[in-house]
Amino acid sequence: MGLFVTVIAWFHIFFAISWVGSAVFFAIVMSPLLKSLTPQSRSEFLIKSLPKIERFELAVSTFTIGFGILLALALNEWTPYIFLGAAFGITAYLIGLLFMAPLGRKMQTTLKILQDDPDDKLVNELLSAQKKFGVASMIELIMMLLTISMMIAAGFM
After folding, report:
1. CA 131 to CA 125: how far, in whole Å?
2. 3 state DSSP class of 54
3. Which residue, 50, 61, 56, 47, is CA-closest to 116?
4. Cα–Cα distances in Å, from 137 out to 55, 92, 94, 131?
5. Distance between CA 12 and CA 80 in Å, rounded?
6. Which pLDDT belongs to residue 100?
7. pLDDT band at 62 (very low <50, low <70, confident <90, very high)
8. Do 92 and 144 contact (CB within 8 A), yes or no?
9. What number of other Cβ atoms are within 10 A of residue 23's Cβ?
10. CA-based torsion, 106, 109, 112, 116: positive or negative
11. In whole angstroms, how large is the CA radius of gyration of the chain?
12. How far, in Å, CA of 1 to CA of 59, rounded?
């Protein structure tokens, strides 16, 4: 394996670790912590953090996919495990892009409105968006874990 392929692999793995790590951290640490905060504290935290989290997730997931494609092209080894891993990874990416990002923006907008004008209807919309976001994030995390499993299988089988 040449230096070029090694560098591509390093970046692919680094960004994949960042993407999966942030998803695991949010699922295991942040979600339970947020539930323990008061509504006002939770609202303030989410308003300030959601845009940064979204930018980070978009960047690391895009770089993971991009370097993964470069790595697959450079290695020219297209095993079924690589195809499956890529399919799961791209599915996770699309879940984040098409479902989680819009839900995150909707939650942030709703939280800002609720700060100025508490409204039961908006609270229910927020709770619904949070529930959908939680389901989407768990599905995304499962897709990522399946991706990792397939990529490990590609390397060792």
Report:
1. 10
2. helix
3. 47
4. 16, 9, 12, 10
5. 19
6. 93
7. very high
8. yes
9. 24
10. negative
11. 18
12. 27
